[in-house]
Amino acid sequence: MRANPSFILSLPLGGKILLALMLGAALLVPLLNLLTPVDSFFHVPTYLVSLMGKYICYALLALSVDLVWGYCGILSLGHGAFFGLGGYAMGMYMMRQIGTRGVYGNADLPDFMVFLNWKELPWAWYGFDMFGFAMLMVVLVPGALAFLFGWFAFRSRVTGVYLSIITQAMTYALMLAFFRNDMGFGGNNGLTDFKDILGFDIQADGTRSVLFALSALALAGGYLLCAMIVRSKLGRILEAIRDAESRVRFLGYQVQYYKLFVFTFSAMLAGVAGALYVPQVGIINPTEFTPANSIEAVIWVAVGGRGTLYGAALGAVLVNYAKSYFTGALPEVWLFMLGGLFVLVTLLLPKGIVGLVNQFTSRTVRSPLRFLYAGKQP
Amino acid sequence: MAFFNALKIYALLLCILFMPLHAFAQTQADMPGLIHQLTDKSRSTQAEAVDALTATGDPVVIAPLDALLNGNLYTRKSDGSVWITTATATGFDLRDPLTGADGGSVAAGEMSKAKITNAIRTRLRGSIGRMSLLGPDPKLRREAADAIFKNGARESIPLLEAALEKETDETVIRRMQRALAGVHLDQSDDTQVRLKAIETLGAFTDQDVRALLNTALKQSDESVRAAAKKALAGVESRLEFWGMAEGLFHGLSLGSVLLLAAIGLAITFGVMGIINMAHGEMVMIGAYTTFMVQEVIRNSYPGLFDASLFIAIPAAFMVSGMVGIAIERGIIRFLYGRPLETLLATWGVSLILQQTVRSIFGPTNKDVGTPSWMSGAMEFDSGLALTYNRVAIIVFSLMVLGLLVLVMRKTSLGLRMRAVTQNRAMANSMGIRTGTVDALTFGLGSGIAGIAGVALSQIDNVSPNLGQSYIVDSFMVVVFGGVGNLLGTFFGAMSLGLVNKFLEPFAGAVLGKIFILIALILFIQYRPRGMFALKGRAVEN
């Protein structure tokens, strides 16, 4: 369980690469963005920093989906809800930071509330002017929702597709709720026009670089945490639940508590991803709660390879890179591609890209890369 | 004597000759003068003219009064003549206020507008209302009576009484009676008249009468107050009844829409256990098939338009069914036993289908026409209106459900379907081609979704996103009703529809829906296999 060097060395190659990449990027990208001249070959433009930061947040979300789906067999079609809640918590903090610089110049109320003619701050906004409290909420709100939801669902043994359908209903209900102006979270416009975070200008290169570095570190840390969980005894039980839930129950394990733990933890991770995502894209609105978004996150995991953790991160980055490219270059084609991806991956690549690579390397017995896989479980 | 007689006859002749002529001459002679008076600068002169014109009772004065009200009555600066104008790009087209004769066109600068105040406006509206009470159009007469009921003045009483005598249309008579009673109750000094008015009003059932009776509760007369209270109780209880009836109708209507959307899913998900996320797109394809059928009919056989839906139903069944069979044979059959993968693959299919339709037909809503026999509504006195298309959908959804139950229970296909879903291996060894049955079952479910699309095209926007809006709801219905149980689906749909509509007045549409979703999530914890779960040993997988 301890994060000592031998634990890191025992990780699969993909995991090591992920850790190395994230740590390297967290160091290098800000340097290349801030210290190199704009016309230099090595210069990383700020838009690219934010774009990569966005992908990394998606990767963290995918990681959280993979933890529950790949290791515990819970196909959540509502993880976008946890991501969105984390994002809203962060957005609320940044809304309060705007203060008197809003269009209406009200020190307490965000612009949209002044516009709706509200007189005082709704109770749900109390405390969000404090960074620490907001960061606590980033993990606590999604965690509490997941705990409550999981408590009911797992206790009464709602499994499989039924669970998937009700997670979808959950995010759908949240979407409807956040679209309402009366909820006090900005209605369909959501929260935007952020100015600064902890006093740093949100548009500045330096802030962007730091946010990127934090996202990369969060992904690395998230990966390490997830890897610790799945390699512990707890992780073994989770896998057993995935493969034969009844049998684990008959062996005397309280299946629902294991599921509840991993589901809640995963939701908190998704919340962190959402909180890092919002300052980098500059807006959070209820479309984050659409069931389609959550289902898309599942396909990232499937493309990368479920049950590998690092594969989920890889899938998220690849699919989103393709999305950015194709929605720009050939917008008509993108939905065909995404749809085709769903079909092809489930039919032909049930283990995703990582599975394909593993198959390739294990077939060529004398592969020169063999030694790199020493840490991989057979 | 002869002279006197002659004088008498002469006088009589004079009378006969001149009396009507005199009267005639007066109205004829006065009208243009009165019209001219309408444009006067003095408000009291204008008011007098309005009243005098109204008093003639001649429908021709409606046009100039209406023009004055809408600011279209002008005087020509050169000769002071009065005209009704229509604005054109360069100036005005002129019409004579009384005869409507064409007066040519002039530049805008040559005319000056007759100005009015709000007091005159109110007076004009009242006058026009009273004039149309006698007009030829029953709809206008009804509206005029309703307008008088809403803000009736004492002077409308004789006019209403006169109009009531002439009126033949049953609905208009009732509206006029209501208006008369309303004015009496509000303005009469005679307690007996007011009591009589309350009695008349007590027979009506609408919100306006309720409001009026409520104001009558404040009148000083004790007997009037008591009568009003009694009448009000009657009106309110009937209003409540009709409100319930309306809620029931809307609930059943929403329920039947849900039923249509979910019934195909009850087969693919409920019977076969396949999570088909592309189910909504089958509905969408059905709606687009309806659009195509109507396009062909519009262009080639316009006479058949009223029958278009009857042609669209089998067409939509075939198209959606074929697409469904293709999906089953191409994708789903490789994924049996892996429900989560099926869910993802069919989600991909749904994205592809949406984008295909968007590429072919464009992203905008398509206009699907309503046949003449489905437009209109059954209207009741209380203001309740049952639109025919909603009624048709309720009936249609029940027919589809009945037909499906028959297919499942009485046909050999239904028998084989049930055999395969209950024990695939056994069915296979009895000689049933399980692959074919799978394809046909899935095709049937998809085809029924297509038929639902025909119905939904009548009440919803036909766009590539049509299916998306139903997918969560349909799954909820099936899960709530109990998987693998068609009657459960029926009860699930209807109860969700009713609860939704009865929650709406308290919580609003969106919040009501959120409540229902939360309630359903909790309900599934309590009964994971739905309200009408099949009993059996196959508890897991």
Polypeptide structure, described:
Chain A has helices at 5-9, 13-35, 46-72, 79-98, 111-115, 131-155, 160-179, 205-231, 233-243, 245-250, 255-281, 291-304, 310-329, 331-348, 352-363; strands spanning 191-192, 196-197, 200-201, 283-284. With 378 residues, chain A is an all-alpha fold. Chain A has one domain. Chain A has a two-stranded antiparallel ribbon with strand order 1-4. A two-stranded antiparallel ribbon of chain A has the order 2-3. In chain A, helix 2 (13-35) runs antiparallel to helix 8 (205-231), helix 3 (46-72) runs antiparallel to helix 11 and helix 8 crosses helix 9. The longest helix of chain A has 27 residues, at 46-72. With 541 residues, chain B is mainly alpha-helical. Chain B folds into three domains: 2-119, no CATH class; 142-220, no CATH class; 247-526, no CATH class. Chain B is 69% helix and 6% strand. Chain B has helices spanning 2-38, 43-56, 62-69, 118-132, 138-151, 156-166, 170-187, 191-202, 207-216, 222-271, 279-300, 308-330, 339-361, 388-410, 412-422, 424-429, 434-456, 468-481, 486-507, 509-526; strands spanning 73-76, 82-87, 91-95, 102-107, 111-113, 377-379, 385-387. In chain B, the strands form two sheets. Chain B has a five-stranded antiparallel β-sheet with strand order 4-3-2-1-5. Chain B is elongated, with a radius of gyration of 34 Å. The relative contact order of chain B is 0.08. The model of chain B is unreliable at 17-27 and 537-541 (pLDDT under 50). The A-B interface holds A 75, 149, 152-153, 155-158, 160-162, 164-166, 168-170, 172-173, 176-177, 179-180, 246, 291-292, 295, 298-299, 302, 332, 335-336, 338-343, 345-347, 350 and B 275, 277, 331, 334-335, 339-345, 347-352, 354-356, 358-359, 468, 472, 475-476, 479, 510-511, 513-514, 517-518, 520-522, 524-526, 528, 540-541.
Q: What layout of secondary structure does this protein have?
A:
The complex is a heterodimer of chains A (378) and B (541).
Chain A: H1 5-9, H2 13-35, H3 46-72, H4 79-98, H5 111-115, H6 131-155, H7 160-179, E1 191-192, E2 196-197, E3 200-201, H8 205-231, H9 233-243, H10 245-250, H11 255-281, E4 283-284, H12 291-304, H13 310-329, H14 331-348, H15 352-363
Antiparallel strand pairs in A: 1-4, 2-3
Chain B: H1 2-38, H2 43-56, H3 62-69, E1 73-76, E2 82-87, E3 91-95, E4 102-107, E5 111-113, H4 118-132, H5 138-151, H6 156-166, H7 170-187, H8 191-202, H9 207-216, H10 222-271, H11 279-300, H12 308-330, H13 339-361, E6 377-379, E7 385-387, H14 388-410, H15 412-422, H16 424-429, H17 434-456, H18 468-481, H19 486-507, H20 509-526
Helix pairs in contact in B: 1-2, 2-4, 3-4, 4-5, 5-7, 6-7, 7-8, 8-10, 9-10, 10-14, 10-17, 10-18, 10-19, 11-12, 11-13, 11-17, 12-17, 14-15, 14-17, 15-17, 18-19, 19-20
